[in-house]
Amino acid sequence: MRVIVGRIGRAHGIRGAVVVGVRTDEPELRFAKGSKLDTDPADAGPLTVSATRWQSGELLVRFTGTRDRNAAEALRGTWLSVESESLPPLEDPDEFRDSDLIGLSVRTVSGAAVGEVTDVLHHGQDLLVIRPASGADLLVPFVKEIATDVRLAEGTLVIDPPEGLLELDEPS
Q: What is the pLDDT of residues 79-134, one digit of tens each?
């Protein structure tokens, strides 16, 4: 499975550097000199990192073969990714990557089927997007009190939703 690690933004300077919107907890590892990154669209890459530096809180990256501002600007909007198998295992057993969670079957603590995790949103509070068999997607906070058990080996996620969380679309 592909894991997004960044998105190329605007060109920076005249020597081919770009600003990268970081989407990984390990930017020093993912954007280390010599790292090869796959791209979306695929015809933009793969790209090999030739240099990085932080400036005013932004990650500036130069890629091999991208020598001027025009070449850098042509990469704008390109998504950067790596294979999930290349990522080191997480040390904290209560920490998960989005790619670990997407596709899990969701059940309540009583065993009732809820749906499948289709996305993870990070907007102040991590939210699981769960697609039920019928009806609109559900947004469920990804906190230990609600997501009580993540069973990656079984492909399931157990939730203990507070009253009303799963019944938002039902008439009262």
A: 999 887 666 677 777 788 887 888 999 999 999 999 999 988 877 788 999 999 88
Q: What are phi and psi of 56, to 5 degrees?
A: 50, 40
Torsion of CA 48, 52, 56, 58, to 10 degrees: 20
pLDDT of 11 strictly over 70:
yes
Residue 64 identity (one-letter amino acid): T
Name the residue among 40, 53, 70 with its Cα closest to residue 62: 53
Cβ-proximal residues to 83 (8 Å cutoff; 6+ apart), any chain: 1, 2, 3, 38
State how far the Cα of 75 lies from the Cα of 66, in Å rounded to an integer.
Answer: 9
The tokens describing 100, both together, are 């670990």
Separation of alpha carbons 120 and 98, rounded Å? 6
Both tokens assigned to 160: 């203990």
